């Protein structure tokens, strides 16, 4: 780390525990401050669980690895690409490993696999569409005040500070060019570091905003070559992923998941209050799903070789599959959609009922992302086409 970086740490970050206990000045450097690195001490900043310090420090000291992984399990339960090919759930690469990375055009590139036809077809079919959607999220957040997991009305009464910073970084990100690039990259990277090292909030609303901000920073970091090339990019990404995992776990414990049976058609008398509560809870449900999905994607591009998934992202979950409910702009529109339009509750990524009974107008952006990841882009494109629509 350069002296310039040490002299200009992200603001509002607190000294590490070792410097605080010794009452010595901390330069707030990552992954360890100068004093701790000289003395061989474990450098722990407030907000990072102590039991994760040894593992994280070990990761940070490892040499840089290429962005590759050996595919042995999917994000969702994936069928075989072709009837004559082995199922991806059973397929174990032999000899040469499957490798995926982002090229200069931010497109997924696939090389060196013992079964290149199966691998490239699988990645293209399942991941290109959701990855393209994720790449557009910073623009969507700024231009539309929403993402596929954050309702446009969620922050209408006020946006927490962590999201204000992330929102501003998204605005800078989408205006980034060759001239302003270095300054914008430095600013986004500093805010990302600051959030990754900040203490985890305790209330559901703050947890949700914290998760949204971490997701936005991770998306920008994933798809921006300059952010990836920053001096402490690797350590920041690891710390941020750890924070996202912890925040998602806490958010999961405070979130209500509806039963899979068809919801009642009647609304409570206080429609406005019910709608506001539904916006908060549905945003939390969708955020948990996307966070778990993104964590898997980040592990893929980080090069993890031990990725496992049970087909439901490792947790029991459910969410409302309804573009009519999600895109309702007023409490009246929401009430009309609730009582007059069919909507579904998807449990543990089981889309069988949706594919059998839903229509294209029922599918919002998150629905498209997860349907394509679950069944493949060709299957879902054909499903839309047979119902008179285009994916």
Automatic annotation (TrEMBL):
Coiled-coil region(s): none
GO molecular function: DNA binding; DNA-binding transcription factor activity, RNA polymerase II-specific; zinc ion binding
SMART domains to which the protein is assigned, alphabetical: GAL4
PROSITE patterns: ZN2_CY6_FUNGAL_1, ZN2_CY6_FUNGAL_2
Keyword annotations of the record: DNA-binding, Metal-binding, Nucleus, Transcription, Transcription regulation, Zinc
Zn(2)-C6 fungal-type domain location: 15-45
Protein name in the entry: Zn(2)-C6 fungal-type domain-containing protein
Species this chain originates from: Aspergillus puulaauensis
């Amino acid at each position: 780390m350069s002296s310039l970086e040490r002299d200009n740490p992200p603001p509002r970050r607190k000294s590490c525990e070792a410097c605080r206990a010794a009452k010595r000045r901390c330069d707030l450097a990552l992954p360890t401050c100068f004093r701790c690195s000289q003395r061989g001490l474990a450098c722990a900043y407030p907000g990072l669980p102590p039991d994760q310090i040894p593992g994280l420090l070990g990761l940070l000291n490892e040499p840089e690895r290429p962005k590759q992984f050996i595919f042995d399990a999917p994000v969702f339960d994936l069928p075989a690409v072709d009837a004559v090919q082995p199922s991806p759930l059973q397929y174990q690469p032999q000899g040469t490993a499957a490798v995926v990375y982002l090229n200069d055009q931010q497109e997924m590139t696939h090389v060196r696999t013992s079964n290149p036809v199966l691998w490239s077809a699988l990645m293209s079919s399942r991941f290109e569409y959701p990855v393209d959607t994720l790449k557009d999220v910073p623009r969507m957040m700024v231009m539309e005040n929403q993402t596929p997991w954050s309702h446009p009305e969620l922050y209408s009464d006020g946006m927490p500070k962590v999201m204000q910073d992330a929102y501003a970084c998204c605005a800078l990100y989408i205006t980034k060019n060759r001239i302003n690039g270095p300054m914008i990259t430095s600013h986004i990277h500093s805010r990302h570091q600051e959030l990754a090292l900040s203490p985890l909030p305790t209330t559901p609303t703050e947890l949700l905003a914290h998760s949204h901000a971490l997701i936005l920073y991770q998306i920008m970091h994933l798809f921006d070559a300059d952010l990836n090339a920053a001096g402490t990019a690797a350590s920041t990404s690891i710390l941020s992923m750890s924070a996202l995992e912890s925040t998602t776990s806490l958010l999961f414990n405070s979130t209500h998941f509806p039963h899979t049976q068809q919801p009642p058609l009647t609304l409570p008398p206080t429609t406005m209050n019910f709608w506001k509560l539904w916006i908060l809870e549905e945003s939390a449900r969708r955020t948990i799903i996307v966070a778990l999905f993104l964590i898997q994607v980040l592990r893929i591009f980080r090069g993890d070789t031990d990725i496992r998934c049970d087909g439901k992202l490792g947790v029991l979950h459910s969410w409302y599959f309804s573009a009519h409910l999600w895109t309702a702009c007023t409490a009246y529109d929401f009430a009309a959609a609730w009582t007059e339009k069919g909507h579904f509750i998807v449990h543990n990524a089981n889309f069988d009922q949706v594919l059998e009974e839903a229509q294209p107008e029922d599918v919002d952006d998150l629905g498209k992302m997860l349907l394509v990841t679950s069944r493949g882009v060709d299957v879902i494109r054909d499903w839309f086409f047979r119902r008179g629509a285009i994916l």
